[in-house]
Amino acid sequence: MRKLSYLLCIMVLFSLISCGNKEENKEAETKTETAQTEGAKKYKIGITQIVSHPALDQSREGFKDALKEAGLDVEYDEQNAQGDITIANTIANKFVTDKVDLIFSIATPTTQAAVNATSSIPIIFTAVTDPEAAGLIKPNVTGSSDRVDNVAEQLDVLKELNPNATTIGVLYNSSEQNSVTQVELIKKVAAEKGIKVEEQAVTAVSELTQALDNLLSKADALYIPTDNLVVSNMPVVVERANAAKKIVIATDEGSVTNGALYTKGIDFYELGKEAGKLAAQILKDGKSPSDLEIVTLKPTNLVFNKKTMEAIGVTLPEKLKNEVKFVD
């Protein structure tokens, strides 16, 4: 009897120890899960875009996709300045007040506004042609530039399409530093090829129609840089150019989709994605913007708009047929 009582005591003791261990394990698991949840930081990124047009919109989506692929949990505050510098400054100051973890600025004017607003919050830009000339080389700034030295190739295509072309018209916003830089490059390369450049600067949408009519009366083709004011009004440019049976050379595929005849430019979605990869290195790996070099891309395929070809009566030369991608 005494042995039986002894055995029963031992069994109860083991049972209590076992239950205690299970409770400790459950508590440990709960603590681990809580720690993991608390450790997964949610980042806040302010996105400031100067205006909406296909190239800039694509770069924004590329940026967000890159951060998604990096596995980061991000809350975005997306703002559009509608082409207004005052609004761009207000947006930048708002992001500083809100203490965002990072600012993603799309295009030169919005990046300049962000740089003027903060020297401590990391700024990643995209769709900026000349960061140095725009005063954007700062310790808290890096990004992806849309500068592509492909003007010679673009003009070679023009000569294939129209061997008699001797003059190109360049329409741009003189208040955009990226456009001024591109126009100087276009003039330089065109002169080397014996092509005259007629330039027309505008500062507002209301000036576009008259400027276009002036250029189209003098030029054999229009060359449109990555100018936010002009590109965001590409349908207006195309309508006037098509009526005059003149070629429109673009610098981004989105403009070709909107009716420009062709481009041999860069993929702005990929440009934005490169910017997103830089942002991931800052947020995830703890790197400083000053440690990361500004990224550029090489030109992609030669892209033509089929409908525009038909509208202005352009035939594709045999020499170009194997390298062309068509959009409607």
From TrEMBL:
Cross-referenced PROSITE patterns, in alphabetical order?
PROKAR_LIPOPROTEIN
Source taxon at top rank = Bacteria
Q: Does the keyword Signal apply?
A: yes
Q: Extract the signal peptide range.
A: 1-19
Keywords from the named record: Signal
Q: What is this protein called?
A: ABC transporter substrate binding protein
